[in-house]
Amino acid sequence: MHEMALTRGIIEAIEENATREGFSAVKGVWVEVGPLACVEPAALRFAFDAAAHGTIAEGARLEILPTEGTGWCVPCGKPIAVTRRYDPCPDCGGHQIDITGGGELRVTELEVC
Description:
The protein is an alpha+beta fold. Helices cover about 30% and strands about 30% of the residues. Helix 1 packs across helix 2 (about 40-50).
């Protein structure tokens, strides 16, 4: 389950920010997760609760914000919605698609005190 490694990285980043910014507790964490990030939201929640135990983020609420997957169809020459890697273009059926978004896992906001 790579979600545990991901949440450990999130907790480390939160603790670094706490040291730099001087906050002592985290009440909420907002994370953007794209459909192409290979992250299972339920596993991320479970891993976050486990990784946060005994840290500044213990008991914090994790809010997962889904983002859109996007790509550029080379044959069509236009942007398209992408829900899974290696799916064909919905317009032309081609597979020459450059992924332009949807692979992110990014902390966007913290509620601190």
